[in-house]
Every structure is written in C-alpha cells, then in structure tokens.
Amino acid sequence: MLVATRPVVLRIQLVRFAVVGLTSTGLDALIYRLSAFALPIPAAKAIGFLAGMTFSIACNRGWSFAQDGARSSLIGCLAVYLVALAINVSVNDIVLVIARSPSLAFCTATAASAVCTFAGLRRLASLSRSTIRASAPAGGGAR
C-alpha cells in the first residue's frame, strides 16, 4: 500500500482547493456584480461570498480535504467560512475606500479570505484524522 508523503498530500490539497476556489470565486464575482446594482456593496459582497461558500463547502469537505460527513466537521467548516466571510467583506470595504477600485478590492478580499479558509480547513482535516486514529481500536481496527 502506498502512503502519500506530507508534501505530496499538501500539493494535492492545494491544487484541489485552487480548482474549487476558482469556481466558487467566479460564482461569487457573478453574484456580487449583479447584486451590486440593487443592494449596498457590503450586502452584495456578502451574498456573493455566501453563494461561493456554499459551493466551496460541499466540494472542499469531500474532495480537497477528504473530511467525513460528521456534524462536528460541518460545524467546524462553517466556523472557518464565517471568519473568512468577515475577512472578505471587511477587506473589500477597506480596499474600496483606499483604492476605489472594485476589481482590486474583490481580488484582495478573495486572496485574504482564501488564505484563512485553506489554513482553517487544513487544520480541521488534520484534527479529524488524528481523532479518528486516536479512537481506532487497538490492533488495527476492524478487518
């Protein structure tokens, strides 16, 4: 049985996270741009982010980080994404005030929240695996 080394696992997670992230960022951008015509910018940004977040949670939990469907895992994911939401909307507002460039604000906010999300989800995945190993029966588990 081949066991992937830590750098290989990290590389796989980063690539998968990037694929999911680019797709969810496209969804976020589309909804943000459309919502900004009718809503205040922070509300439009939050709605776009939440749409991307919903897609991202579904894909990252199962594919990027191979987490199980446990409720505690979902609660942890939601906590990570709520922190990322606060970072995303705040950074977007700050950059809009300073640079007055919606594109720069969107990209900067997305990068800041992506770093937070990757670090948080990776940590949750490692905690989940260590909990599973610790609770496995002695002697290698079920056969």
Would you mind describing this structure in some detail?
Helix 1 packs across helix 4, helix 2 runs antiparallel to helix 3 and helix 3 runs antiparallel to helix 4. By secondary structure, this protein is mainly alpha-helical. The chain is elongated and about 45 Å long. It is built from 4 helices and no strands. The longest helix has 34 residues.
Sum up the structure in keywords.
143 residues; mainly alpha; 4 helices; 82% helix
Characterize this entry briefly:
The chain has 143 residues and is mostly helical. The chain contains 4 helices and no strands. The chain has one domain.
Largest sheet: none
Whole-number count of domains: 1
The pLDDT mean sits at: 84
Order of helices and strands: HHHH
**Helix content range of the residues, please?**
over 70%
Our count of helices gives: 4
Cα distance spanning the termini: 16 Å
Set down the secondary structure blueprint.
Elements: H1 6-35, H2 41-64, H3 71-99, H4 102-135
Helix pairs in contact: 1-2, 1-4, 2-3, 3-4
